[in-house]
Amino acid sequence: xxxxxxxxxxxxxxxxxxxxxxxxxxxxxxxxxxxxxxxxxxxxxxxxxxxxxxxxxxxxxxxxxxxxxxxxxxxxxxxxxxxxxxxxxxxxxxxxxxxxxxxxxxxxxxxxxxxxxxxxxxxxxxxxxxxxxxxxxxxxxxxxxxxxxxxxxxxxxxxxxxxxxxxxxxxxxxxxxxxxxxxxxxxxxxxxxxxxxxxxxxxxxxxxxxxxxxxxxxxxxxxx
Length: 224
Prior knowledge:
The protein contains ten helices and six strands, in the order H-H-E-E-E-H-H-E-H-E-H-E-H-H-H-H. By secondary structure, the chain is α/β, with parallel strands linked by helices. Strand 2 and strand 3 form a beta hairpin. The longest helix is centred in the last third of the chain and has 19 residues. It is globular. The two termini are 29 Å apart. The N terminus is likely disordered.
């Protein structure tokens, strides 16, 4: 079945075992119950915001399942990169500090793919993080992510639209939403710290969107 999928989408067939195993997970039906489904909330720190030229410096993630933040089910990796941008280093400080063990991009991606499995991925302004991961995968001869995505920026707007208290053209930052929900901005501008903040926001958003018998397919209508 994986081979047929590759032929249909003109994808390479000589994939590493871990990526073939990852793709095989999507043959299975997803759980509809939010409480059962595993969500992985993640964030990337990058050398800049140009998807084509910039590179990922770190990825942080944490899982949510059974309506609980799984603190022990977390992920963090720092990547070796030659690209350097002094302006973004002022924000995240990763290259400047150089206090982290760093992995080659291909190895870091393997760890990330093994961690996420077929979970639904959640990020703030998810389009950027998704594109950065997909670009990195393409550089290493791998297909794109197959996971479903949710964007907390879009979900937040949906909750505000219900009350008609929103500027539809406004782009809400992570800081603004965290302040609205009284969430402390711990370790802001680190991948793991931002993933943790986003995860807390996501849990509040789920409760606001539908506190009773929410289904996955309803959440997935609110994609970017």
